[in-house]
Design brief:
Elements (H helix, E strand, L loop, with lengths): L1 H10 L19 H34 L19 H30 L8 E8 L2 E6 L4 E4 L1 E5 L8 E7 L4 E5 L3 E6 L5 E5 L5 E7 L11 E7 L1 H12 L9 H8 L30 E2 L4 E2 L2 H9 L17 H11 L4
Parallel strand pairs: 1-5, 4-10
Antiparallel strand pairs: 1-2, 2-3, 5-8, 6-7, 6-9, 9-10, 11-12
Helix pairs in contact: 2-3, 5-7, 6-7
Length: about 325
């Protein structure tokens, strides 16, 4: 308890700064990630062996042919020219190593890409923007942003198929513990799939430089038991909560240009250029994973997003203090 209290105390000053959780790619918890870990370990083992042999020969040569006391330092050592056996060895062996790595990589890539999803698979569409993600579940009529909810698959049978698209520049989907990188290319559709074996939050990010806020284009996959996922999908499908206590804030929000970009189901706000805000407060972060979603960060974001994520397409509405408080109060009712 004491250690946890000390850690919390040390972390407190950084609670409202951008968060960059680092996932361990060598701790895969999905089938594609496990296959790719195997390739990585094989490559590391082979290259380590090459390094050890090469470095060992260099060290041996330095030690074996060093100048010894009594040697004539001006005398050039005997010169040995060529060895057919050595030439063949250091040509053939690297070629064989390259072919082994190519063969293993092709086999694993083909196995991952050609896998046949089960009939019970969940299908979602992930769309990359500068610099955030749209997550669309056509099966459930659900659209959210920056967080992917999927059912957990302890036996590898509940697969989530991900259709990847981009509306502007090249992005790249990468959740290190679940699967390797797959690009999102404008005017092209790519596919990948994941099957998290354990419940939990898996951290990822855009892995292709896509502009000034590339490092702040983060993503989370939240794996849940099937019952919890179905409950989440049902709740996300519902229209926004209409809280009478936030009527003034709702009126203020609907009077702003926010309605041209954001969708809030059940209201006149029907924009499609920004994230769907219908269930904003059900998410863990704001600004595509940049900050934890809480009152202080939400207020700072609405007040001036450019102070948090310079270059993003959301402008400051220049709200007065009371207007800002009302709008934030309304947004906080969108669970």
């Amino acid at each position: 308890m004491l250690i946890q209290a000390v850690i919390a105390l040390l972390q407190a000053p950084y609670a409202n700064l951008p968060q960059y959780p680092v996932a361990n790619t060598f701790d895969p918890l999905a089938t594609p990630g496990q296959a790719e870990k195997g390739i990585a370990l094989l490559t590391i083992a082979i290259t380590t062996g090459i390094f050890v042999v090469t470095a060992g020969l260099i060290v041996y040569g330095i030690w074996r042919y060093r100048i010894r006391p009594g040697d004539d330092a001006t005398q050039e050592p005997p010169q040995v020219y060529g060895s057919n056996q050595i030439e063949v060895a250091w040509t053939v062996i690297p070629i064989l190593i390259v072919f082994v790595l190519i063969g293993v990589s092709v086999r694993v890539i083909a196995a991952v890409q050609n896998a046949s999803p089960s009939q019970s698979s969940v299908k979602l569409q992930l769309i990359g923007h500068q610099w955030w993600w749209t997550v669309n579940y056509p099966q459930f009529g659900v659209v959210t942003a920056n967080e992917i909810h999927v059912p957990v698959s302890p036996d590898g049978k509940m697969v989530t198929e991900v259709r990847l698209e981009s509306v502007d520049v090249a992005h790249s989907f990468w959740i290190p513990q679940l699967a390797g990188k797959m690009d999102l290319i404008p005017n092209r559709i790519n596919y990948t799939w994941i099957d998290p074996h354990q419940p939990g939050v898996y951290y990822g990010n855009c892995a292709e430089y896509c502009g000034t806020q590339h490092a702040n284009m983060l993503l989370r996959v939240i794996a849940q038991p099937t019952a919890d996922f179905n409950r989440w999908a049902y709740e996300q499908k519902q229209p926004a909560v209409d809280d009478p206590n936030a009527a003034e804030g709702k009126k203020a929000f609907l009077s702003l240009a926010c309605v041209n970009c954001h969708l809030i189901k059940g209201t006149p706000s029907a924009g499609v250029f920004g994230p769907d805000l219908t269930h904003l407060m059900s998410r863990q972060t704001i600004g595509a994973g940049v900050l934890p979603l809480n009152h202080e960060n939400l207020r700072a974001w609405v007040n001036d997003p450019q102070q948090i994520k310079p270059g993003c397409l959301m402008p400051s509405m220049k709200l007065t203090g009371p207007e800002l408080d009302h709008v934030v109060a309304y947004l906080e009712t969108l669970h």
